[in-house]
Design a protein that fits this description.
This protein is an alpha+beta fold. It is built from 5 helices and 10 strands, in the order βααβααβββαβββββ. The chain has a 6-stranded antiparallel sheet. A 4-stranded antiparallel sheet has the order 4-9-6-7, with no helix packed on it. It is globular and about 65 Å long. The N and C termini lie far apart (50 Å).
């Protein structure tokens, strides 16, 4: 190309997802608390959340109270949700400049944790395409993967491997538009997205538990 032409790709309509890394100490403490809960059938029964969820998942337990009481986790959630909000709003004013936050930093945003739960999935479990209601943002943090999961995921690279993956789905399918975004579960990885976005979780075959924490949030 002989001239620059001041070319700039503008993508004002793309749904936006933010990724963060959870503090390792938080992941460790959450797993310890969850292990305590799932070891007691009476507490699992008291916290059973399967009636509220779409998936075929072995263990789904309500975890809202523990999330709200874990200060380091709530601080992390507020930081991520505020940054997401600031950057998305600034992008509306600055043509997809998602790195800017300074113009809205003075605004006091109150983030409300609506509900949270734990999904312990085993081989064959899955979560069909769905979205979340009664909140503004949805999120997930990966807490555990089966010991043999990496080998399973790497087994077939001739095509896209979705074993145990979270997949986001945009309703548009057209030239120049990517409508699927697939996320491999990695312990400590955290994603937040608009609650209306369809998403699903694919099954896997490895023995062991794929553990994730889902949290719905709102601006209060």
């Amino acid at each position: 190309m002989s001239h620059d032409h001041d070319l700039r790709l503008v993508a004002p309509f793309s749904p936006t997802i933010i990724k963060a890394i959870m503090p390792p100490g938080v992941v460790e403490r959450l797993n310890a608390r969850i292990d305590e809960i799932v070891a007691r059938q009476d507490e699992v029964a008291a916290r059973d959340w399967s009636a509220h969820l779409a998936g075929a998942v072995s263990t789904e337990i309500r975890f809202t109270d523990v999330i709200r009481e874990t200060v380091e986790l709530t601080d992390f959630l507020y930081d991520v949700a505020r940054t997401y909000t600031y950057r998305c709003e600034n992008a509306l004013m600055h043509y997809s400049d998602y790195e800017r936050t300074e113009e809205l930093e003075a605004r006091k945003l109150r983030i409300e944790i609506k509900e949270g739960w734990i999904n312990d999935m085993v081989a064959g479990d899955y979560n069909p395409a769905h979205f979340h209601q009664g909140c503004l943002y949805s999120s997930v943090g990966f807490l555990r993967v089966p010991p043999a999961y990496e080998a399973e995921f790497a087994a077939d690279k001739a095509r896209q491997n979705t074993a145990g993956c979270l997949q986001f789905i945009d309703s548009r399918s057209a030239v120049g538009v990517k409508n699927l975004f697939t996320v491999k579960p990695v312990v400590g990885d955290f994603y937040l997205w608009p609650s209306w976005m369809l998403h699903c979780v694919y099954p896997f075959r490895s023995p062991g538990v794929r553990r994730s924490m889902a949290i719905n949030l709102a601006l209060a």
